[in-house]
Specification:
five-stranded antiparallel β-sheet
């Protein structure tokens, strides 16, 4: 009886091994399968993206046009942020961020960061923003429609595990005499030239004499 029970036990073990071998696609030299925890580092969803809001008003303060849109963070802007963060020298020929703008890594003399907003007439009323842009197509550079600096940038800290840091940069442009057409905007790190962080084209906004345009860029850093 003991001999029969031993034979039955051995047969049962053999059957389990055969079934396991076929289930895993073949026999293995090692009959023990060891499960290990996945210790692969998970990528954080942190990034930087922006939102553009435009409000055009007539001389009485009435809203005549409203546009909001996501915007394009351009390559040179991404380069500048990385170089500023890690203090990379601007004379490194593999990087494009240079000129009169941000100061880290010897980037010119300005200490104002990306606080300058420009508007222009050059996109043809379409969103032609691409990551390789380094300037506006037809920036307005004179009078009350010229590039402006926001000296009171609003920064909101990231708190908790699901929030993000935000930066709001805005400016108001006023049309003086004739009609001004605006169909693009960008954020720069200098009052002229400099490095562009972001750009966006949009449908034409026509401003008569005395009309104003509020331009607000909101940048979100984090998930």
């Amino acid at each position: 009886m003991k001999q029969n029970m031993s034979i039955m036990f051995i047969s049962a073990i053999a059957s389990v091994m055969v079934v396991g071998a076929f289930a895993t696609g073949g026999f293995s030299n090692s009959p023990l399968m060891i499960a290990t925890a996945d210790n692969t580092a998970k990528e954080s969803p942190m990034g930087m993206y922006g939102h553009l809001e435009l409000v055009a008003r007539d001389t009485d303060g009435n809203i005549i046009k409203y546009i909001q849109s996501d915007n394009t963070i351009v390559n040179i802007g991404e380069n500048c942020v990385g170089e500023l963060l890690f203090d990379v020298a601007s004379d490194d020929p593999t990087h494009a961020c240079s000129g009169t703008g941000i100061t880290a890594g010897n980037h010119g003399s300005s200490t104002n960061g990306f606080t300058f907003i420009a508007v222009g007439d050059g996109s043809g009323g379409t969103d032609n923003s691409v990551e390789t842009n380094t300037a506006l197509t037809g920036e307005n550079s004179t009078g009350t429609m010229a590039r402006q600096e926001d000296t009171s940038v609003v920064f909101t800290d990231s708190t908790g595990t699901s929030s993000s840091a935000t930066v709001v940069v805005d400016a108001t442009f006023t049309s003086v005499g004739g009609t001004s057409t605006v169909d693009e905007s960008g954020v720069f790190d200098a009052s002229t030239s400099g490095n562009m962080l972001a750009r966006q084209g949009f449908a034409d906004i026509s401003l008569g004499a005395g009309d104003s345009l509020d331009v607000t860029w909101t940048f979100t850093i984090g998930s």
